[in-house]
Amino acid sequence: MLATHQLTFDYSPAKQFTFPDVHCANREAFLILGQSGTGKTTFLHLLALLLKPKSGSVIIDQTDLTKLSAAETAAFRAKHLGIVYQKPHFVSSLSVLDNLLMANYLANKPQDKARARELAGQLGFADHLAKKTNQLSQGEQQRVSIARAVMNQPDVILADEPTSSLDDENTSRVVTLLRQQSEQIGASLIVVTHDQRLKDAFQNRVNL
Ligand SMILES: Nc1ncnc2c1ncn2[C@@H]1O[C@H](COP(=O)(O)OP(=O)(O)OP(=O)(O)O)[C@@H](O)[C@H]1O
């Protein structure tokens, strides 16, 4: 479960944000829609406590992330959050498999090759595990990015513009995969996007 309460953030006195409250139960999905520059990435970074809010709270299950120290926040994020970034940020010198195992390493968990292989099969890149990430197409990289986000069976999946560079077919595929994965592991799924095509796939949504 993820819930926010009266989140505000300032980059400067001229750039201030007040965000709507969000509530997303386990296995549910929530869409945050907004045009370019409305603060979607800022909001997602607040949800992941990659940015510290000026005021308000971010609750994941029983934990208020805004009350944690920086070290506790980093540990909590690695264990309980799966993030699909706007750009994947892979380690290009490592294989696809090792990029997936990196999620285990960062969460201080044993490397789970069986889970990496299982996800690669489900998400359709089992043949690419030994390749470097820059040898994959954009759509394939997107699916690896989703697999990496769910490697540790997180409580919450956050996805930043996961479909912006994809055609209609791959867009609906990615949405289906994100929803399937979040339902399988019982996570809350939060997607931020300007992509109006996603509107009909999400009952719970808010506009920024
Ligand atoms: N580090 C920063 N310092 C100052 N202003 C920033 C910073 N990062 C973002 N902004 C500004 O805050 C606003 C919201 O940015 P944000 O990246 O959250 O928007 P967005 O809705 O995700 O946009 P896009 O869809 O174009 O990625 C923009 O006007 C941006 O210029």
Automatic annotation (TrEMBL):
Gene3D superfamilies: P-loop containing nucleotide triphosphate hydrolases. Transmembrane segments: none annotated. GO terms for cellular component: plasma membrane. One of its GO terms (molecular function) is transmembrane transporter activity. InterPro entries: AAA+_ATPase, ABC_transporter-like_ATP-bd, ABC_transporter-like_CS, ABC_transpr_LolD-like, P-loop_NTPase. It comes from the Bacteria. Keywords: ATP-binding, Nucleotide-binding. Residues 2-206 form the ABC transporter domain. This is ABC transporter ATP-binding protein. It comes from Spirosoma radiotolerans. The lineage of its organism: Bacteria, Pseudomonadati, Bacteroidota, Cytophagia, Cytophagales.
